[in-house]
């Protein structure tokens, strides 16, 4: 019943096996091995076009370096008020860029509202030196609220980006879960909808540590090479990341694990809906479930070994939370089992 | 015959096995799992005192964050002219610290000359605002030239550090090789000789990716927690690093691999000395061998599958290199076999 | 009728005369001249305690360096949503601090609301590494909306600062106007109410270029010395700033000019109130007047040579602005004359 | 007898008069006044082509921002070992650029040796990510050793810059003295010889505070606008700088003061040569004289009211300094009088 986060799981057995398989032999360091190159190639196939790939250590690094690739003095990145880069990265995006600013944009349940975005940018569109100027837009897919931007939603954002000449970054720490939810292709969900640079997360979906920047805007590739090294994010034994991605992509493992995590979330959501004393805060679209539970019941569940987090009210939440109730987040992963869910459901009803 | 670098090897089977063993089950993320904590404890045992441990992604990160922990406006870090932080980190130390300066110090074969160090610091000791001011001293053990600071050498440097009130950092990317060479203890080679903060490298000595900052100056621990996260160096599934270190330390594996690498270097050195057309540039003390070979012979070796690097003349080298000769670096590792060496020796003689 | 800003005026004749008077002779550079030292001493007298003084080139520099003096990795500065550091400094505070964050706090008419501040800080009080942590509070006196924090208001903020162990910075670009308005002393309005560091502006109130950081927290003085030089804010012929301040303080010139500017604002406000087609947006408390005018009338005034700015609606404004009306800002200064005001009033009525 | 530095003088009476003259009236702030614009125009005339002008507070700011305009991750600026940016700016260039590196180049008496420069750059020309990469070249005219690059010398450096695609910056804190010495034009000494960006100093040559970046590479102008503001270097009452430059350029005042300062240096040099117990360390070419004096004599001179500095041995100095002798620097300025020199000469002989 570990629903604290998808990063509490270990690694998928196939990922672990791949690491072991690539254990021996010598290979060029710093991302130049044959395996690294094969994996870069694999990314290009998956995205149906040439992409430049940069392995990095963490999702925070992927996001921060992506923004740094588009850094400007006085630059402002527009992102959702509750995005990971705002709430969970200790100011890394600002630090990496030497002080650019994140400007929160409103929007219900983790998704930027396009008109709020436009208004936000418009204010700085004159590039008045005192005020600073727009530098990038960042969206998260799936969002921190477990919701999804539909393809049209992404397009609406990217049209605004185009109008103002801004790059569009996607934080895809849970990219696979979004893809599974939308039943679309990586290409459709990214560059075909105007995404310029993507943080592609494998860690939460079955890897130990496999994060990559996928750069569609190839003119920036050389700079990003230096940016990554300068940020101490260039692995020497890079093939240990490559090996994980190799297994991750093989036979569609990554989509399998994402579908599984999403299905487990749906099962959990159903269990919560079934319980007469509990309710969903909103409908989950990927692998995160937000529920309103009686506080005492929640405490009992935690005491009995379940792990999940108390959550803050997201912007745009219009439901009702009773005096004795709380909002809680549950995250499922490749490792979540039906048995986990069913046991939780049982405890919930108890 | 892969002597290009010790980071061309994969991971030791026991390290790989540990990763697989910890594959399943849930564990708190971000370094708070039981395994992480057990490994922190293990570090304290190994160093015979309480230490604070920070896993990071790369040696460059360990060095850069360590200096950042002692950052000062106008700060100057004194380090060897050919140290890794000067030559191989793309300016990461300067970037992480927001612009502090590295000031190269001379010294033969990779080791700082204490009197040159003292002279270097003395110039800034007045803390004149225009000139900047001393901030830290950094030494590398074993050095980039494959040499070792003896315990007295470290003490000589640390006395200077004390006199000027400066912290002393050790870049221990090849810490184990130095330890094996000196046949001393981690404590003796570090805090008992005045080291304040250590980059402890496991990657080059048998891990996939296992680098830790070992902080002896515990008052700085809280700050370093924020510094690491802000630098995007906090792993979510931190136990994948912990698992590697767990295996690394178990039954003295790390010293075994280091002794092996050093022994292979000695064997290689002997083979070179034996060859009438080749000679050692200087005596290797750890797992790096620098040799003077006939250029044509070197090319032939490379063509026949050997991997090693052409090297620049280090400061303080007083040997003679003939017109048709070159200086080359050979690095051995846990994975190097006697057979590798013997085959190389044979080719060399051919 | 130049009400665009108080920085559109030149310098007070007495300030200009002082510059000319100190024109000749030699004096130690970089702030060490006798005149510099006398002016530092004068600041201590004015503030009724020892203070450390740092001349800088701009108000933006004063604010940015002040925050840098309290910089922390992952640090967050709480300030009003419409403060100068947020809206008008091109990200300089973030740049100077290498990426710390400004977190806007709500509050009516330019003044931070204490309970909103408390709530804002409370969220980060746990110092969770992901979220970042509180680093400072900044208030502006007088505010960007021409309002004033009363002494009790400052105390209410500083009590919160104390509770959370945070330094309290005051942006005093219009310090003298606030002082004149409150009819209190510099000491009462600053350190006696818990201010740790102050941006003391002379430029807007009759100098050419005279900005100083007044540091009450003397332990930070040495660091600030390096911070200022590193930020390229240490003037060589520093006495040209000292000379201005010398004249500024002599015989209370600074309070005279501030009282005059405030009086002119009051006269302008009265004229606007008198006009049946115009109204004050809110009561001015210092030297800035915000008025609601018919747009066409405003355009006519601008066409006839008046200079003033269209303004955005400040947070907490609860007045009504008609469809054909706009909100405008008028700033008076030492140079504003009664004749200016009367001529404007006449044109307004026309 | 104040020869400590040319920044110990005040301002030329004509500069002071101009400040007073522009004292009254209103003018657009932040560099947009008519006077500002007229001065920008004047710069274009003086340089015989369109230039972009950025007033800043200090020479350190001019240099640091100039390098920031060409900033690159992993970037290395090649400059003389004893240049102001290396020795006297407290790391500001590194800070402004967020951590780029200055790489000292050797060369006799303050001038970069072209072949040492080439060798220095060549090492990084491969743009290997570990090593960092060339970003700019900086020269100082006149140099810190009071010497001058001839037009051919500048061209030799700029040819290297071109070959490697690097921008060439000139630190012209003493630009006018160099110009007076070479009897050439501003255009010939800068863009016609390949200079891309210039720190144009007026402060040391008769202004209070008048430093400008002269940008020949107009494509960078917009970025520099943001860089300057973000660095808190945009003056509000910018016309106080403009007024100084206005007087500075009027009727060739600036060349008059420079010629005077140089002539005073020559007179001082002659006096030293005349003295049998003293000698010039090398021939002065602008307004700085370096002499070898008996230490006791030097102390006596200082005691009798003369001001000058003990100096370090510059790179490439091949003269002899006796055991009881010291090397001293004397700087003359617009304010130095023949009487000063003659009095000093008399004391020297005494």
Automatic annotation (TrEMBL), chains A, B, C, D:
The keyword Transit peptide does not apply. It catalyses: L-threonine = acetaldehyde + glycine; L-allo-threonine = acetaldehyde + glycine. Homotetramer. The keyword Lyase applies. Belongs to the threonine aldolase family. Residues 3-275 form the Aromatic amino acid beta-eliminating lyase/threonine aldolase domain. Transmembrane segments: none annotated. Its EC number is 4.1.2.48. Its cofactor is pyridoxal 5'-phosphate. It comes from Mesorhizobium retamae. This is L-threonine aldolase. Keywords: Lyase, Pyridoxal phosphate. InterPro entries: ArAA_b-elim_lyase/Thr_aldolase, Low_specificity_L-TA_bact, PyrdxlP-dep_Trfase, PyrdxlP-dep_Trfase_major, PyrdxlP-dep_Trfase_small. Catalyzes the cleavage of L-allo-threonine and L-threonine to glycine and acetaldehyde. PANTHER family: L-THREONINE ALDOLASE-RELATED (PTHR48097), LOW SPECIFICITY L-THREONINE ALDOLASE (PTHR48097:SF5). It holds the Pfam family Beta_elim_lyase.
């Amino acid at each position: 019943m570990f629903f604290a986060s998808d990063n509490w799981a270990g690694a998928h057995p196939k990922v672990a096996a791949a690491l072991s398989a690539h254990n021996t032999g010598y290979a060029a360091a710093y991302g130049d091995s044959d395996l690294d190159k094969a994996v870069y190639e694999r990314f290009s196939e998956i995205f149906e076009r040439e992409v430049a790939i940069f392995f990095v250590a963490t999702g925070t690094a992927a996001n921060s370096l992506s923004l740094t690739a588009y850094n400007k003095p006085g630059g402002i990145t527009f992102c959702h008020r509750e995005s990971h880069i705002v709430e969970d990265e200790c100011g890394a995006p600002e630090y990496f860029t030497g002080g650019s600013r994140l400007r929160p944009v409103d929007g219900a349940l983790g998704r930027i509202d396009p008109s709020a975005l436009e208004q936000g940018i418009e204010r700085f569109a004159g590039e008045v030196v005192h005020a600073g100027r727009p530098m990038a837009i960042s969206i998260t897919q799936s969002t921190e609220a477990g919701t999804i931007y539909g393809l049209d939603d992404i397009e609406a954002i990217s049209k605004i980006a185009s109008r103002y000449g801004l790059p569009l970054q996607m934080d895809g720490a849970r990219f696979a879960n979004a893809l599974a939810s939308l039943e679309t292709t990586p290409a459709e969900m990214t560059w075909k909808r105007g995404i310029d640079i993507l943080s592609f997360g494998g860690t939460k979906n079955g890897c130990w540590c496999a994060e990559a920047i996928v750069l569609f805007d190839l003119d920036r590739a050389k700079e990003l090479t230096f940016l990554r090294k300068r940020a101490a994010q260039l692995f020497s034994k890079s093939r240990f990341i490559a090996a994980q991605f190799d297994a991750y992509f093989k036979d569609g493992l990554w989509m399998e694990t994402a579908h599984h995590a999403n299905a487990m979330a749906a099962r959990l959501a159903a269990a919560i809906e079934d319980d007469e004393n509990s309710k969903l805060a909103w409908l989950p679209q990927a692998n995160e479930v937000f529920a309103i539970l009686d506080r005492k019941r929640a405490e009992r569940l935690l005491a009995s070994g379940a792990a999940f987090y108390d959550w803050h009210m997201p912007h745009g939440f219009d439901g009702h939370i009773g005096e004795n109730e709380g909002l809680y987040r549950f995250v499922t992963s490749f490792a979540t089992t039906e048995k986990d869910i069913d046991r939780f459901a049982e405890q919930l009803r108890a």
